[in-house]
């Protein structure tokens, strides 16, 4: 039983935390950036339409771009200033894709352009709360980047019973959620209560890993007088932040593969999202900044910063005292699942939770060797897959084989690569296999579509031919018939007239 | 140099390497080995050194032939193969027989299949079986241990202890060949003061090494536990029914290579299954086969054959006995 409580799911690892770099210093609000770059292209590829032109003066909090539907969250100006240019600029996409970007030059004035007076949230209907969340442009701050308002609306429709707030923060280095819970516990609790009302569910559980005792005690006192909120301690085990694993650890239920958590009546949101929801609903403030962990062994002064959207990574590094040694890699997100930044001039967007400047010692990049079939990856995999088999099949592009061993269920969490003694870049293989699988699925869809079109065309042709034949037959019939009928008719008419 | 090209995560690593694992296994073998050398003397030292050094040499040649980096010759896997083979040989084995066993283990058992990780069979056991078939006399020439005695003027080293010549010396029966006859006492079996191969005499020291590996997470308890249980259970049942014709459970588990097989040979990471269910099946298979071969086969010791037979099933086990996918209700995915 003790063992069961210690490990709520099989697999998982305990990576070195490195959280001590930032967990004991308060969140710092950085001064207004001199310039921000807002990419008009969203993570899902949709391009937003800009409402401002080059040369326009804009104020902090003003709506500057929006998309065609609710799947695209609107973009607001994070600073006061002038639109300098709208031009392609490197984005956080790992390939360094250049996207059309609003370049805004700031004037250093930190006041909001539009006053945001607190409102009485108790008067709002659930739909109004959801609309405010959508209007504020809030996306999941845990990294998924899905519009939070839509998730709330969906959960309401599905009749979700429990809101789970993810305060797990299982990625090494990152402490921004931890600090946020310690410093803004009341706001998170209020945000959670608002979300509970928006969904119409029974309760919200805030799940916190046991390696954050201060967060636990602060959150516990913040929810003490709210009967429908509670705090639950979960063991620290990577990847506890994964939705499915958090649900298992908190409720004991599992979400069947291929299904969403809403199927079993649970919605998961990040604690930082709850805080953003609070600001959006109470003050109608758009999401224009977030708390981020700027850390890593190569950084002079690792800090948790409040960062305006669109701030360049290079500015953030400068803000943290610059690099004290050569960084081997700049990573957006945590070291387990984060992505390599293609350039230091990438602007921050809403779903980046941290920037790491990692030294060569931390990365421990090493030559990979042949798989020794040691099975450590199998033991580490939180999904119960066989990573080494998946990799062996992926490597030779045997995608069906890779799927047989679980490719479709892979979280790309990297636990397997972390423990592999042969340093096999397993996740790299899986990403590759996934993208070729997606490509072939798209191809299949396309060819199925083409086949449908051809079939439709053939069917149409056939129908037309049939119709023609039928028409011809009918015509010939009619022709025959006229030939006959007239005869008959003629007969009859003939007969009649003759009879007449 | 900052690297800006996309690389998949994780951007950190736990730090274990194959070499690290292999040397931890070797470290776990050291107590039992040193004890074996102490018991059996100079020729045992020669056998061990010959095995280990020739293993590295053959591995080097093999890597050269495969066109791989020859640095891997010292990654510990070849040393471990040589070491395990040495431990499974009679201490009086002539060094050149040992070396030919290593040749078979490394070159035929590993290089031919494509090197470390590709070999389906445990190389050390393959070498052991080949030697048993080619040199049956030398490979069953068991000696009673002859440890140095405390004499009047310092340590007294027996003639047999000092001998490098395989011919002289007194042959003795191993506990296994007389499983039903006069057995060494339990304490003799545990502490290793009985005839046997170089490293499989002291069950206690092997057990300690194995527990160390389990504690460090190098091996999992599944294979050793199921293997030993599957020897013990049939042995206990048959012994209870007919004590005069079947050995007891403790005799089976503590003698011969059972302990060594359970903790160090069947757990070889390359040739054993990786999924929990597969490992349990593998352990049971090895244990039952060892007992069957010992009891009904024509060889007194069945470890090498049992492990090799189960090795052959590993790919099938790994293909069908996958772990349960997280969240999936049905546990078997055949
Ligand atoms: S951990 Fe690495 S070496 Fe071991 S089985 Fe998995 S992929 Fe192979
Ligand atoms: S990346 Fe995929 S295969 Fe590897 S541990 Fe995570 S879920 Fe398992």
From TrEMBL, chain A:
<feature type="binding site">
    <location>
        <position position="420"/>
    </location>
    <ligand>
        <name>[4Fe-4S] cluster 1</name>
    </ligand>
</feature>
<dbReference type="InterPro" id="IPR037225">
    <property type="entry name" value="Nuo51_FMN-bd_sf"/>
</dbReference>
<keyword id="KW-0004">4Fe-4S</keyword>
<keyword id="KW-0408">Iron</keyword>
<keyword id="KW-0472">Membrane</keyword>
<dbReference type="Pfam" id="PF10531">
    <property type="entry name" value="SLBB"/>
</dbReference>
<keyword id="KW-0677">Repeat</keyword>
<feature type="region of interest" description="Disordered">
    <location>
        <begin position="463"/>
        <end position="500"/>
    </location>
</feature>
<feature type="binding site">
    <location>
        <position position="413"/>
    </location>
    <ligand>
        <name>[4Fe-4S] cluster 2</name>
    </ligand>
</feature>
<comment type="subunit">
    <text>The complex is composed of six subunits: RnfA, RnfB, RnfC, RnfD, RnfE and RnfG.</text>
</comment>
<comment type="similarity">
    <text>Belongs to the 4Fe4S bacterial-type ferredoxin family. RnfC subfamily.</text>
</comment>
<dbReference type="Pfam" id="PF01512">
    <property type="entry name" value="Complex1_51K"/>
</dbReference>
<feature type="domain" description="4Fe-4S ferredoxin-type">
    <location>
        <begin position="401"/>
        <end position="430"/>
    </location>
</feature>
<feature type="compositionally biased region" description="Basic residues">
    <location>
        <begin position="470"/>
        <end position="487"/>
    </location>
</feature>
<dbReference type="InterPro" id="IPR026902">
    <property type="entry name" value="RnfC_N"/>
</dbReference>
<comment type="function">
    <text>Part of a membrane-bound complex that couples electron transfer with translocation of ions across the membrane.</text>
</comment>
<dbReference type="InterPro" id="IPR011538">
    <property type="entry name" value="Nuo51_FMN-bd"/>
</dbReference>
<keyword id="KW-1278">Translocase</keyword>
<feature type="binding site">
    <location>
        <position position="410"/>
    </location>
    <ligand>
        <name>[4Fe-4S] cluster 2</name>
    </ligand>
</feature>
<keyword id="KW-0997">Cell inner membrane</keyword>
<dbReference type="InterPro" id="IPR017900">
    <property type="entry name" value="4Fe4S_Fe_S_CS"/>
</dbReference>
<dbReference type="Pfam" id="PF13375">
    <property type="entry name" value="RnfC_N"/>
</dbReference>
From TrEMBL, chain B:
<keyword id="KW-0249">Electron transport</keyword>
<keyword id="KW-1133">Transmembrane helix</keyword>
<comment type="function">
    <text>Part of a membrane-bound complex that couples electron transfer with translocation of ions across the membrane.</text>
</comment>
<feature type="transmembrane region" description="Helical">
    <location>
        <begin position="21"/>
        <end position="40"/>
    </location>
</feature>
<feature type="transmembrane region" description="Helical">
    <location>
        <begin position="248"/>
        <end position="266"/>
    </location>
</feature>
<feature type="modified residue" description="FMN phosphoryl threonine">
    <location>
        <position position="174"/>
    </location>
</feature>
<comment type="subunit">
    <text>The complex is composed of six subunits: RnfA, RnfB, RnfC, RnfD, RnfE and RnfG.</text>
</comment>
<feature type="transmembrane region" description="Helical">
    <location>
        <begin position="278"/>
        <end position="297"/>
    </location>
</feature>
<keyword id="KW-0812">Transmembrane</keyword>
<dbReference type="Pfam" id="PF03116">
    <property type="entry name" value="NQR2_RnfD_RnfE"/>
</dbReference>
<keyword id="KW-0597">Phosphoprotein</keyword>
<keyword id="KW-0472">Membrane</keyword>
<keyword id="KW-0997">Cell inner membrane</keyword>
<keyword id="KW-0285">Flavoprotein</keyword>
<comment type="similarity">
    <text>Belongs to the NqrB/RnfD family.</text>
</comment>
<keyword id="KW-0813">Transport</keyword>
<dbReference type="InterPro" id="IPR011303">
    <property type="entry name" value="RnfD_bac"/>
</dbReference>
<keyword id="KW-1003">Cell membrane</keyword>
<keyword id="KW-1278">Translocase</keyword>
<feature type="transmembrane region" description="Helical">
    <location>
        <begin position="46"/>
        <end position="66"/>
    </location>
</feature>
<feature type="transmembrane region" description="Helical">
    <location>
        <begin position="95"/>
        <end position="113"/>
    </location>
</feature>
<keyword id="KW-0288">FMN</keyword>
